[in-house]
């Protein structure tokens, strides 16, 4: 298992001519306790806006990057 900090990956991508256009943080509400207390539909509804809001802090265990090639 290899784990890299997202900022390191962004720097490596930039060296290859790729620019980050958008970042999303995913699986922000995957807590088993939350899943027991809150119905799935509500968690999904909450997850969508949190993906953008929490992206800059790399809060969730998953991070997606929309990239654009500049070279």
Mean pLDDT: 93
- CA distance, first residue to last residue: 31 Å
User: How many beta-strand elements?
Assistant: 2
Shape: elongated
- How many separate helices? 3
Order of helices and strands: HEHHE
Oligomer: single chain
Poorly predicted spans: none
* Rg computed from alpha carbons, rounded to a whole number of angstroms: 15 Å
* Strand order in the sheet with the most strands: 1-2
Helix content: 40-55%
Beta fraction: 15-25%
The main β sheet shows up as: 2 strands, antiparallel
Structural class: alpha+beta
Written account of the structure:
With 71 residues, the chain is α+β, with helices and mostly antiparallel strands. It is built from three helices and two strands, in the order H-E-H-H-E. Strands 1-2 form a two-stranded antiparallel sheet. The longest helix is centred in the middle third of the chain and has 14 residues, at 40-53. It is elongated and about 50 Å long. The termini are far apart.
Task: Kindly summarize this structure in a few lines.
This protein has 71 residues and is α+β, with helices and mostly antiparallel strands. The chain has helices at 6-15, 32-37, 40-53; strands spanning 18-26, 62-69.
């Amino acid at each position: 298992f290899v784990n890299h900090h997202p900022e390191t990956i962004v720097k490596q991508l930039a060296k290859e001519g790729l620019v980050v256009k958008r970042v999303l943080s995913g699986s922000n509400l995957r807590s088993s306790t939350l899943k027991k207390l809150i119905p799935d539909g509500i968690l999904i509804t909450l997850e969508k806006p949190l993906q953008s809001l929490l992206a800059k802090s790399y809060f969730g265990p998953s991070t997606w990057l929309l990239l654009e090639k500049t070279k």
